[in-house]
Design goal:
Blueprint: H1 4-12, H2 18-48, H3 52-87, H4 91-114, H5 125-163, H6 168-175, H7 178-184
Helix pairs in contact: 1-4, 1-5, 2-3, 3-5, 4-5
Length: 185
Amino acid sequence: MATPNADRLHGIESWDTTSIEQANSHLHNVRGKLERGCGDQREVAADLGLEGRRLSRFKPTSENVAKDLKAHSDGIGKLIKVREEAMKGASAKQKAPKIQASLGEVNQQRSDGCHTKSLSGLPAGHQLQAQRRGSLKAACIEVEKRAKKVLSELQSRTESAISGLPFIHKQMKSYGSAERASTKG
């Protein structure tokens, strides 16, 4: 019996999160530098000793730069949070080997069953073979159900994390969601 979800889940086992973790570390550093830059920008006018008209012309520009730095810092903070939330989906990676082991056991039982064709000559042989096929099918269905649940949890967690991206809501409005587009077609 085919087990497409268990097969998809098998691909997750090789997911290496090291580069994502390193990138998050660098993003934390960038965010900190932007926040320091924002604070520094607000102190520039005082440090320059500007007064009067010069100060009134410089201050709005300086304040806009500080606001932009703060907005970028906040955006990077949200990106870090989203990436960390998506990384929690790596729990599927720990569940995959158990599911694959169960599938391996089912496949081994199926393979062992191929060697018991001699049962068909016995009075109850056909019933025993049918019973064995039924139990193997039920085992495959159970493995597939477990794999589907893990993949569903991973998809849900990923979609939730993506919805937290700082730019996603603007993009959804301008392009429309993929879900709406697929229902129109």
